Amino acid sequence: MKLFVDPTELASTSRLPQDVADIAIPLPHLEEKTGADMLISILDIPAASDALLRRHCESGALVQLKRWADLQNAIITEQRLWHEVQMMTDYSPMAWLVISGSLFSVNDNAVIGEMGDKRILKSGMARATITGRQGLSYASVDGALDAFRLYGGYVKFIPDNNYLLSWCTRMAKLLEAIKSGEVVELKPRVPMRYLSHPTETSWLSALFEGIGHKTARAIFEHLKAYFNRPATLYEAMAYILSYRAVEMRGITAEKIAGWRNLYGLRDLPADSKDPALYEVPYSILHLTSSGEAYWKDSPIPHYRNDGPIKTQCIFTVESLRSSLGEVWRVQYAKKEVTGRLMAIKIESDFEWLIIEDTNGITTEVRLDLIHDLEDPNA
């Protein structure tokens, strides 16, 4: 038996039993890739690649460990049990949730307790004290465990962590029996229902306080009409963080200001030496440290915290890059120069076009000052 364990389970704060830790083989990113804390394998091969990892998983068992104190947190706070079982069943036909502790009810609330003070009484009877914290209702926890099974996983309670190694050993023997054909009728559980991945709408409503599913759907419909294609989540987020979003019902400038503050966006970067680049569905807005605004390809006004600003198209790095090496007549401010476009220099505040004339003299021209480019040979 090989027992691969995610390195986080081997940390000093982990409650992994020492006998398990002694034989565990650290496998980086195991939980990130498979959703499991532990992998029980019967193959005598390394697990150095995704392909080899899949071979171990297909003939082995993936295990997510929950101690008696953190199962309810995983259900209500992290809400990740469902994603973990989906990830595990994508890799292995045997996905286990192993819980250390005992589940019982107190005043209809679930308690997952740790057993202690065990005594043998007369007539073969025994008594134990179980200590745990009340949390969700018993029906909620029991229903969540049923859901884990319906998604294709298996649930196992063990009295305490001291029994984890013996359970892993029994599972390895069962896997060996399946591989040898000794056990021929044991079939992995088939999922009875599947978890759908979060949609862009659900993500958008989760990322911005005050936006529900109805408003999120309306935003995506609005952007679809504008783009003539479905908008991406990034485009929807950029739209909400621009003051254009006040055109949507229920979204105010005050809400947008709060969201921008939460995401660390400043309306004018006068307090920063670095320029700010805000890309929104309607434009790419470049705010320099002087507070000047430059943008491109916009048929409609853009909004800043102090109100609308006029639109104009400027020459950008992207629009000039294809012309490098060619000779052009460049008009900028109240000046003009004819020469070969040599390079584009990007600094913290401005982008510059470097032009070399026939005498070998170079001129640097700020892109935002260029108002015309003309091919002198045309």
Structural description of this entry:
By secondary structure, this protein is of the alpha+beta class. It folds into 3 domains: 2-180, Rossmann fold (3-Layer(aba) Sandwich); 200-290, no CATH class; 317-374, SH3 type barrels, CATH 2.30.30.520. Helix content is 30%, strand content 28%. It contains 12 helices and 20 strands. It has helices at residues 18-23, 30-34, 50-59, 71-76, 81-91, 138-150, 164-180, 200-207, 213-227, 233-240, 253-262, 317-321, and strands at 2-5, 25-26, 38-41, 61-66, 95-100, 102-106, 109-120, 126-131, 134-137, 154-158, 276-280, 283-287, 293-294, 302-304, 307-309, 327-332, 335-346, 351-356, 362-366, 370-374. The strands form 5 sheets. It has a 6-stranded mixed beta sheet with strand order 2-1-3-4-5-10, sandwiched between helices. The protein starts with a strand and ends with a strand.
Brief overview, please?
The chain has 378 residues and is an alpha+beta fold.
Keywords:
SH3 type barrels, 3 domains, Rossmann fold, five-stranded antiparallel sheet, single chain, six-stranded mixed sheet, 30% helix, 378 residues, alpha+beta, elongated
